[in-house]
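User: I'm writing a short methods note and want a consistent example. For Sialate O-acetylesterase domain-containing protein, I'll paste the sequence; you return only the structure tokens, no commentary, since I'll be parsing the reply automatically.
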Amino acid sequence: MEKQFNSQENEENRIAKIDKQIFILSGQSNMAGRGVNSHKKIDGILPPECQPDPKILRLDAHLRWVEAHEPLHADIDNKNTCGIGPGMPFTKAVRSQDPSIDVVGLVSCAVGGTAIKEWEKGAHLYENMVKRAKASIRCGGEIKVILWYQGESDTSTQHDADTYKANMERFIHNVRSDLCLPTLPIIQVAIISGDKAWLEKVRESQLGIDMPNVVCVDAKGLELKEDDLHLTTEAQVKLGSMLADAYLKNFVSSSPC
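Assistant:
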């Protein structure tokens, strides 16, 4: 039994020390994923873009590197039923288009139903994201980008919508400062669901952010589930590809044509 434990510990240490390009996945439910959900046996019906790959790792809730499997946020957004999000399709698309990218480490941080004020510096969600991001590079690796899909919870009141842009810009400034990465790329998604009264105001804020190394991918046109809030599995796969194109175009200068 002790020999088995030592072998497992050695394997965890080996994985932790592998040089990795690290992608942080954060925001609310559409980043955590609500596609094919974990109440179903998803192994046999996963799209190819969501199948596991030994070169794609994930930092679990205990800050250990493990092979990434859908749903990526099951132990992070653990009060909700998680399914397929854009993280795995994004990663596979990036690796397929840029062969120089070898091992990738995904850091899941998204939690469903959360407003931007819950991601303020000092708040639990923000501090946990920073803690996980710092833990991800403790034994090697480099944080390359934050993928951010959030805002639906800020469409309920005029105040939340009106202050969204300033709050998001403050979030970007704070996370770059706390990670000591002043030019860290951020790719945010312009939302397509939420309370119709202030949805367009939040979208306008997201599309209007003009900061260095901040890019916005518009989800408009992607299919929603029957709940009119969450992206379908097919839409999540498409979004992952869109995010990959934005990442390679804007932040990987040597990406192939």
